[in-house]
Write a structure and sequence with these properties.
The protein is mainly α. 64% of the residues lie in helices and 3% in strands. It is elongated and about 80 Å long.
Amino acid sequence: MLFSGLLDLPWWGLLLVMLALTHITIASVTIYLHRCQAHRAVDLHPLVSHFFRFWLWLTTGMVTKEWAAIHRKHHAKCESAEDPHSPQVHGINRVLWLGVFLYVKESQHPETMERYGHGTPDDWVEHNVYSRSSVWGLWLMGAVNVALFGLIPGMLILIAQIVWIPFWAAGVINGVGHWFGYRSWDVPAPDASRNIVPVGMLIGGEELHNNHHAFPASARFSMKWYEIDLGWMYIRTLEALGLATVKKVAPKPRFAPKAAADFDTLHAVIANRYDVLSRYAKSIKKIYADELARLAHWSPRDAEVLRSLKRALLRGQALAGAESAKLGEALKKTRALATVIAMRDELVALWGRSTASKEQLLRQLQDWCHRAEASGIAPLVDFSHRLRSYA
């Protein structure tokens, strides 16, 4: 019959089944494809890993190598013309509603698979079943759905399973996650990643997208006390059962007072660079407010320039053309603000100098702290004391 199968469920029962099945798919994507395969942040027991791979074949037809390669390229080329699905490049509407087509287009580039698809499953099942016959899983899933729930309910559940990931992952995460939301970490431009909401329940924690871009190798996406990462909870459960091993999580800063920065300080500052920048931004806010109030009395035009460029100023965003020139002129009227902004740029350059030896980097860090503490700018002096204590 059209509306009955082996399981005779009411409409709300069918709805619950649909939500449960699609949630398993979400968990498979975030735990297996994303955190395990693309970033190697967690190792899964072979049985768990193969279950996720089998489930994704049944419900999406996605190939592990393609997904991992495209996602790795997204990180490597973020917000550039080579980014497979940046809304900054392709537009938010195209990525949100047609993101799956951008994914399919990129999957057809052999050079992407060759460069970014390494280390993914390469066994007989992958070559002869999952990759070669990716649509067979959908047919099998459809047949099982129809047998269990009836023709029309079964096909509706299958359609929901098929469209769930293209919309939520290819559309919402890749689109909204780079367009709208809050930022906990000022990842380097042009990366525009955002945390959509702090409660990562609907998409398994993928909502915390800015956190992920700040620490891509971390198995845990939640960073603040108010953030919830459901995928991380599942991983911890699997770990407690001996079915998963967490390889890396984002570092948590530790502090130990020191008279001078040493190699441990250097390593800690680099490892916790986003925390360093976050704390530095708070120091700039205090100086910005004081200097803005001072300039408002005797140089209103410069105060207005600083006020209009507040976001770029505090976040270290690059300016071009007339705005850059206006900011440069305004900063000539405030030594304190000009100093902390210039020293922020020096601090950022510290972990960007890949060719410098660790001895050179340490000398640069020690010199930075010395000049900060000799500046006479109280928030900068306090920050330098804090910076020296990173351990």
